[in-house]
Design brief:
Layout: H1 4-11, H2 27-58, H3 67-73, E1 82-84, E2 93-95, E3 101-112, E4 115-129, H4 145-149, E5 164-165, E6 174-177, H5 196-206, E7 211-212, E8 215-216, H6 218-221, E9 264-271, E10 276-277, H7 278-284, H8 289-303, E11 307-308, E12 312-321, E13 324-334, E14 337-344, E15 350-352, H9 360-363, H10 382-392, H11 397-407, E16 422-428, E17 442-449, E18 452-460, E19 467-470, E20 490-493, E21 496-499, E22 506-509, E23 512-515, E24 521-523, E25 528-536, E26 541-547, E27 552-562, E28 571-572, E29 577-581, E30 591-598, E31 601-603, H12 618-635
Antiparallel strand pairs: 1-13, 2-9, 3-4, 3-5, 4-6, 4-16, 7-8, 9-12, 10-11, 12-13, 13-14, 14-15, 16-17, 17-18, 18-19, 20-23, 21-22, 23-30, 24-29, 25-26, 25-28, 26-27, 27-29, 27-30, 30-31
Helix pairs in contact: 7-8, 10-11
InterPro entries: Cell_wall_metabolism_enzyme, Dup_hybrid_motif, M23ase_b-sheet_dom
Keywords: Hydrolase, Membrane, Metal-binding, Metalloprotease, Protease, Transmembrane, Transmembrane helix, Zinc
GO molecular function: metal ion binding; metalloendopeptidase activity
Length: about 650
């Protein structure tokens, strides 16, 4: 029971303090306010802690190195510090590496009626690392498998605009005309031959013009000067000879052709975006741990610190030979100010070195356009990577779309890019700026995606004048037949015995079913002639049958409609839209029932081994091989004269 003394002890015996005439607050009212404030503070603190914890956990995915990048970075130790450069998610800015992009003047020959016009034209040779953060110079179309296989690509002119690579170099435009050598009798009288005395007299009178300044012409070296001189005259046998004077410590050697195994120097520019140890900055860029630790220790001794600051730039000098890379120099910059350099001496040891010549890449190392996404973020799809890289290297959208179409049979464009995926191309350009135009033509492509490499060359068939692309063996890069005539379709049913959905009993399913919404376009699996186009009373509904070469036929069934112009006898090109998906005939839903018939027998379109495309033979194959050798020689930095046609 609360007594008066206890009440005084609890409330106090001093009167409450009043302000501005207001009444004293009630004790219970003050407690309620305090409780409400404490409760709201606790809720706010919990929310803030939850947000911070979520952000911390969400960022953990950026700390993991993908397994593929880790595997490619691992390498066995070598005493000579030779390392294997692995693929990386952050593409380095490779400076002073001439193989990345080169503009060259090449002599080409174009047939103009009876004449052959030889002229010099600029060509671009580019090697693109697709995983780098390329920025497209213009918008490009979204991925559409139907558009990739469509036949609406620009058809080449009757005569190639670029022409073929000429076997020799020319200084200006030259017109050549070839005529048959006259074998019949001529109406002109033949002059009699010169006597020995007349020949000697001509040499005596014309000998003075057989020199060009101080250089004696080659024709005169085969003549003994004393034979045509006076016996009493003094003869200087060294007259007309010239000597070549070389500077001191200078050696003249024959040019060496560059191959994939030729050693090549490159600078690897690594921007430091956060404070980090030197070794970690190297390993994050793809260098193996054991070599990163060794180089970091040497740099730290010279720098006086083991960590790099945000804004520093690492410059790694490497000698590349194929897939091998040997680190020969390392420099550290703070902004553009050089701090320290270490380099390999003659004994293979790292020692302090002098500052190397400055590169523009040092100042632009932190440009957003020069690097790939940070670790942890997904690389783009193959389709996007090809378009972004090609457009940033000066290729046109039409030329890039052609590359996409030619690679479609071997490359999954919706797959994620790998750090090692590359694309090499050789194409004509407008000028030394290296920008392709609508008149530019693609001559060569070498694409590597994972373990798959696809290489093809442009060639104009001399027989029919058609331009196509062939592999190194002269086989067309295009497929003979496509296995899926509905690029947007979903596979539903395969070839073989199955229970018929309508008839209710087991029956042989003689094709494959591709489900798609009604009205989805159907494309021709290959070039051919329409054999049938119309209604089939046997349950196929609207049916189109196309006859291809070598006894192959393709059948398209249950179409909602057949495209205009697809009639018996019409010529069809691969990728041409021939109809639309429907559910006509004995069908339970919109789909395409696709059949492939070989010599009258229906076979599984997905399992049969299809023949390749067109193969060059005879004289056409020989001319293609000459063209291929000339292109290979140009890309290896050899002179065209070395592979001139015999």
């Amino acid at each position: 029971m609360m007594t008066e003394k206890m009440m005084i002890r609890s409330l106090g015996n001093e009167p409450p303090l009043l302000a501005d005439g207001r009444r004293a607050p009630d004790k219970r009212e003050v407690s309620l306010r305090w409780l409400s404030g404490t409760f709201l503070t606790g809720i706010t603190s919990s929310v803030l802690m939850g947000v911070a914890l979520f952000a911390a956990l969400d960022g953990r995915q950026q700390l993991a190195i993908p397994a593929e990048a880790y595997a490619s970075a691992a390498a066995a130790a070598h005493e000579d510090t030779t390392v294997v450069r692995g693929g990386r998610l952050i593409a380095p800015a490779i400076a002073a590496k001439p193989s990345d992009r080169a503009i060259m003047e090449v002599s080409t020959v174009v047939h103009d009626g009876e004449k052959e016009v030889v002229r010099r034209q600029p060509f671009a040779h580019v090697k693109m690392t697709l995983a780098a953060n390329h920025v497209a110079t213009e918008d490009y179309p979204d991925f559409d498998p139907l558009a990739i296989f469509s036949a609406d690509e620009p058809q080449p002119a009757p005569q190639s605009r670029t022409g073929a690579i000429y076997g020799s170099d020319v200084e200006s435009e030259v017109s050549l005309k070839t005529i048959a050598f006259p074998t019949g009798k001529t109406g002109m009288k033949m002059a009699s031959g010169l006597s020995l005395e007349e020949v000697e007299e001509n040499v005596r009178s014309n000998g003075s013009v057989l020199t060009d300044g101080n250089t004696q012409l080659a024709a005169l070296y085969y003549v003994d000067p004393r034979r045509f001189s006076n016996e009493d005259a003094d003869v200087d046998l060294t007259a007309g000879l010239s000597a070549r004077v070389l500077e001191q410590n200078m050696t003249v050697s024959a040019p060496e052709s560059i191959t994939p195994q030729t050693e090549e120097f490159a600078d690897d520019i690594l921007p430091v975006r956060v404070d980090a140890p030197i070794a970690k900055a190297l390993t994050d860029s793809g260098y193996p741990q054991q070599y990163a630790d060794g180089i970091a220790g040497i740099i730290a001794e010279q720098l006086g610190a083991s960590d790099l600051e945000k804004g520093d730039v690492l410059r790694i000098g490497i000698i590349q030979k194929g897939e091998q890379a040997k680190i020969i120099r390392a420099s550290v910059y703070r902004g553009t100010r050089h701090l320290v350099t270490v380099a390999v001496d003659d004994k293979g040891k790292y020692v302090p070195g002098s500052e190397p010549p400055m590169l523009d890449a040092i100042a632009t190392a932190f440009d957003d356009n020069s690097f790939a996404p940070p670790p942890g973020q997904n690389l783009p799809r193959v389709y996007d990577g090809i378009f972004r890289a090609a457009l940033s290297y000066g290729m046109t959208k039409d030329m890039t779309a052609l590359i996409i179409k030619l690679l479609a049979s071997n490359v999954d464009f919706q797959a994620q890019l790998r750090p090692t995926d590359t694309l090499e191309a050789f194409f004509s350009v407008a000028d030394s700026a290296g920008q392709a135009t609508a008149d530019s033509e693609l001559l060569y492509v070498n694409a590597r995606f994972g373990d798959t490499q696809t290489r093809f060359y442009r060639f104009q068939d001399p027989e029919d004048g058609t331009v196509d692309y062939f592999d190194e063996n002269g086989k067309s890069i295009r497929q003979f037949l496509l296995r899926n005539p509905v690029p947007n379709g979903i596979f539903k049913s395969g070839f073989g015995m199955r229970r018929h959905p309508i008839l209710g009993f087991a029956r042989m399913h003689t094709g494959v079913d591709w489900a798609a919404p009604r009205g989805t376009a159907i494309i021709a699996a290959g070039n051919g002639t329409v054999e049938k186009a119309g209604w089939d009373s046997g349950g196929y509904g609207n049916q189109t049958i196309i006859r291809h070469a070598n006894g192959y036929e393709s059948s398209y069934n249950h179409q909602s409609a057949i495209a205009k112009g697809v009639v018996p006898g019409a010529k069809i090109r691969q990728g041409q839209v021939i109809g639309w998906v429907g559910t006509t005939g004995e069908s339970t839903g919109p789909h395409l029932h696709y059949e492939l018939i070989v010599n009258g027998t229906k076979v599984d379109p997905l399992r049969i081994r299809l023949p390749g495309g067109k193969s060059l033979q005879g004289e056409a194959l020989a001319k293609f091989e000459d063209e291929r050798k000339r292109i290979d020689t140009l890309l290896n930095n050899q002179t065209p004269d070395q592979v001139a046609s015999k």
